[in-house]
Specification:
It is a single chain. The protein is of the alpha/beta class and 262 residues long. It has a single domain (3-151, 174-205, 236-252), classed as NAD(P)-binding Rossmann-like Domain (Rossmann fold, 3-Layer(aba) Sandwich), CATH 3.40.50.720. It is 27% helix and 20% strand. It is built from eight helices and 13 strands. The chain has a seven-stranded parallel beta sheet with strand order 3-2-1-4-5-7-11, with helices on both faces. α1 (13-22) crosses α6 and α4 (79-89) runs parallel beside α5 (124-133). It holds the Pfam family NAD_binding_2.
Length: 262
């Protein structure tokens, strides 16, 4: 049985770990506080309390990394911590790493962005990606998600506080539902797509005006103020590579049809 360790069982990592267990994998998961251990045990995930921002040497990384695959699903940008983790990985059984990244590594180019477009070298997240990709101790697949939405993450709630406005209202949005994030990572593992970089984004790209107007209307929040501009700064994330290589059909291809009532 393939064993997988999920570093960071939060908004994305927890449902991912649960889904991997249901697909027959042996899963270990990490949280940052002991209070969350019971929730992992309840879904048959072996729990660990770990913190990349703490003193790594004093934590139980050796046991946690006794797996075939490591999925990194934490928002930390602590390069020192990740450098220490990579050092530990070199003497672990881990063969493959999936690094959850973001399309924020790309600058706005007012055009379609594929994986062939160079990421910003000044992006800390891209620098961390590179630390993993350059290691010869394991292979790394980087998956760059667009804006994460779904379930407890309703973008309309951002505007519950008054005074928040939106610039570039006619620029297209790049979003992806949690369910597609989980299934895409699962398919990367099942199909063994290693040493790759993937963009992951829904098919549709409505304008900010359309998207956030509907998102706020769904929960009865006042429509945000839009800062009008003659020119728009944007990027449109292409998902063609990941759809083609995984033969994947999105669960939520149209972000305007996403419901947040669960």
């Amino acid at each position: 049985m393939t064993s997988i360790s999920v570093l960071g069982c939060g908004w994305l990592g927890f449902p991912l770990a649960k889904h991997l267990v249901s697909n027959g994998f042996a899963v270990k998961g990490s949280v940052r506080s002991k209070e969350k251990i019971d929730s992992l045990e309840a879904i048959s995930v072996t729990p660990f309390v770990l913190d990349i921002d703490g003193e790594i040497i004093d934590q139980s990384w050796g046991s946690f990394l006794d797996s075939d695959i490591l999925i990194i699903a934490i928002p930390s940008k602590n390069q020192t911590g990740f450098t220490s983790l990579i050092s530990i990985l070199g003497s672990s059984p881990i063969k493959h790493v999936i690094f959850v990244s973001s399309t924020s590594v790309y600058t706005d180019n007012n055009a379609v962005v594929t994986e062939d477009v160079a990421a910003s070298e000044s992006s800390v997240l891209f620098q961390i990606e590179s630390l993993f990709s350059q290691s010869s101790a394991f292979t790394t697949t980087v998956i760059r998600f667009s804006g994460l939405v779904g379930y407890q993450r309703n973008p309309g709630r951002f505007f519950q506080k008054s005074g928040r406005s939106i610039s570039n209202p006619d620029a297209p949005v790049n979003m992806i539902h949690q369910d597609d994030c989980v299934e895409l990572i699962t398919q990367i593992i099942k199909q063994e797509k290693w040493d790759e970089v993937f963009n992951a984004c829904a098919d549709s790209h409505p304008s900010k005006r359309e998207f956030y107007t509907k998102a706020t209307q769904q929960i009865g929040v006042k429509t945000p103020e839009f800062i009008e501009s003659e020119t728009q700064t944007f990027k449109i994330i292409s998902n063609e590579k990941i759809k083609k290589l995984l033969d994947y059909e999105f669960i939520y291809p149209d972000v305007m049809q996403i419901s947040y009532d669960i």
